[in-house]
Amino acid sequence: MNVELRDPNIIMKLSRLGSFHQSRLSFLRSFLCEFKDWQYNRDLFDLDQEGYGTVVYSFKKKNRVYSLICYANKINDDERSDRVIATKWDAAFTLHDGVPLKEDIERLRNEVPKQEVGRVSYKELTLSRANKSVRVFDHVVESLSNGKQPNLNLLEKVGYLYRTTAVYGSGKFGLADRFRIKNRKEINGPFRLEMMLVYLVRQFTFDQVNHIAKNKNPDSAVKLDLKICRNLGIGNSTGLGMAPFIINHPTLLNNWILSREVALKKIREIKIVKTQDRDLFKDCVKNSLKNITSWNTESEYQLKKIKLLLNDIKKFINFLENEFTFEKDYPFNEIYLWLEKKTCEECIEYIVSIMMEPFGEIIQPLVRQMSSEEEKYFNIPTEREVGDLKKILENKYSNILKIDFKTEESTQKFWFISKNKEEPRLANRFEENGADLEQPLAIARDIKRLYERLLTLKSNLRINQFLIDNNDLRHVVRRAFIIEKFPYSEIQDNTIGENLVPIDMLRLKLSFFGALKFDPRSDKWLRICMFQGAPLPNELKDYDEQWVYKT
Amino acid sequence: MKSLSEIETTAKRASRAAGYSWGIAEEVGKSIRLSELFGFPGIKHLNQYYQNKKKKNFETIKLINKINKLNSSTFCPIILGVNFIDQVKKIETLKKCSVENLSYPLLLLPFLSRGSEIIGKKLLVSFDDSKFLLNFNLSILSNFWNKEIPILANQVEISFLNNEDNFTDHDWKNLYKLAENTFVEETDSLKEGAAGSGLTDND
Q1: At what angle are helices A502-513 and A27-35 packed, to 10 degrees?
Q2: Candidate from B1, B21, B90 with C-beta closest to A174
Q3: Beta partners for A166?
Q4: Of A229, A237, A422, B33, which one has the greatest count of Cβ atoms within 10 A?
Q5: Strands annotated E in A368-474
């Protein structure tokens, strides 16, 4: 049986992309898989009694070493902010390429805590900072120093000791450009080094909390139970900064989504599913209920989605137990078709993610195809004709071409870069100044403009001639020729309309990171948790791949 | 040291701020990145050009011909560069073209380098006395290394080089002969057993 890949016109709608969940394709899971046989070490632990100072961790294999350097600093409570406008953090981190020399550690001590206004070098690969969840951190220190384990209810509500507020890579603030390292096999997957940083930061939070508790009460302090550690992750606050990324990297976006779609297609095409695989799938679905019921948020938008999801998952479990049998041919195809008919988008994508769990042999080769050599597709094929371009637009942007961009509702918002923090922002063009400095992120509107202009031209006009007088639309001409080859490279929605929910864009990216428990704090930023339930660094050699569903 | 990613982003944004469309700004970002990667002072010249552009009007070229000249004023290197990569397959048929009075010619160089990659041919470029050999966007050879590149070229010449060997037959034969010393002379027995098919295949 041949199952068609799902239609980009459905999958690339923002409401669908904003319903994606982590899976075996997610970057934090593929990072763990790649680095499981690397040697983990804590190379330096130089904290004072209050937990301030420097710590270095490393992953090593043969001659390759990656070292996380952590700088823990004292800050006042009124200086602690998750917003990008903050200038001080409880801890700042950089991932160094190799073993850092003393001079490196000293050089970076002056720069890393400054984050965006500091300068790092090509020897550094990623940069980040994090703040304590003070309520949880203080409680854990207090409990451990008194010889007790912390209150699990409180820990479950938050899920982490520290929250990162940004993780930078790929040349930002002087970090190494990707071209310097892209041929290394172990990082042949998106955001591997960012994931490594976050993972090692998680270990730092445990080591620091144990250290402070021990120093507070050397005689009676106990260490944080390893099982509790495993069930804590790292929080992350994420704002609009992430949203433009998925528009600005169309071939990369395609490769992420295409991998997911190919995985689903292959799973639906399996004629007979082995007993152990069907059991694993069922177990993961049932175990995952705990992830949903422990998903805390005050966002009404998300609460509604969680409620719908929970109802639909229960409905699905009932279907699996009472109406469905894996004895039929192509059982996952039947499951998928049932989901499409009977459940919400959030549930469809949730189960699609879980379907991948038993099939590592399908997933692993796809993980290696999730990066992109974007430069290869930058040049516009200017020998092609206007007729070709028109056809591409009609075939690949059919829903976009139906949008009426003459209304205020469809053009209400504009994306801009704030002068203060050089970060992307979104505003109402009819109420705020700055729309003349709009970023090129209104792809749907500009594609429609391009189409309308092409309608008046002869089909055999070459693109190089068209561009002479139409370079204002050059950015979307380039994209149209990219989508011709990469069907999932474009969001099939209006990114400046009144009804835009920007966190849908963030969720898409975060789901590929492997985030759990999205907690929108507004329509423009959210909190998440990463690595919750993941094995600890010294447990990587032999860990359970399905740890996500066993927290 | 600034990363290439920072260089590309800043050049792109500055180009948009200087009045170019986003699509052209993207081209400039890529080209300045290349220029710096090859060791040419792209950022310096772009900055000077945009400062100058506020005061002076530069002419844009639409269709690139064999000879491109203006009576007064000078050409904008950005629009010339973008049109060069767009029209390079057509310009290639001219074998050679020239531009008179080009401001900030260094800014044209990375566009020409990208053109060399698109058509798969080396380009020989001269800005008055400065010569550059562009090799498929993989490298640029120059007789102008470490010298101040002028901000105006009176005469720019671009030649499309045929894909030819840059060594003689004699050199090749001699080297090939030496390489043959790694081969084994085939005996009848080797002919029979060391390859897949038989000595005759008339069946």
Answers
A1: 20
A2: B1
A3: A129
A4: B33
A5: 413-417, 424-428
pLDDT tens by residue, B52-90: 998 888 989 889 999 999 877 889 999 999 999 999 999
Give the CA distances from residue A219 to residues A137, A206, A224, B17, in Å, rounded to whole numbers and listed in that order.
Answer: 20, 19, 15, 64
Residues in A closer than 8 angstroms to B3, CB to CB, are 122, 171-172, 174-177
Structure tokens at B195: 């390859």
Give the residue among B118, B114, B112 at the shortest CA–CA distance from A381: B118
* Nearest-10 crossing angle of helices A443-454, A386-396: 140
Nearest to A159 by CA among A510, A524, A527, A508: A527
User: Which residue among A379, A467, A473 sits closest to B118, beta carbon to beta carbon?
Assistant: A379
* Contact across the interface for B89 and A171, Cβ inside 8 Å: no
Nearest to A378 among B20, B30, B86 (CB): B30
Closest CA to A86 of A169, A168, A164, A32: A164
3-state secondary structure A131-174: EECHHHHHHHHHHHHCCCCCCHHHHHHHCEEEEEEEEECCCHHH
Token pair of A239, please?
């704002």
Q: Is A186 helix (H, G, I), strand (E, B) or coil?
A: helix
Q: Nearest 5 degrees, angle CA A189-CA A193-CA A194?
A: 105
> What are the extents of the domains in chain A?
36-239, 379-485
Provide the β-strand partners of residue A91.
A72, A130
Q: Is the dihedral of CA B192, B197, B202, B203 positive or negative?
A: positive
Q: What does the pLDDT look like over A144-193, one tens digit per residue?
A: 999 999 999 999 889 999 999 889 998 999 999 998 998 999 998 899 99
With a CB cutoff of 8 Å and minimum separation 6, the contacts of A514 are A22, A26, A27, A28, A29, A195, A530, A531
Distance CA(B48)–CA(B53), nearest Å, equals 8
| B5–A178 C-beta distance less than 8 A | yes
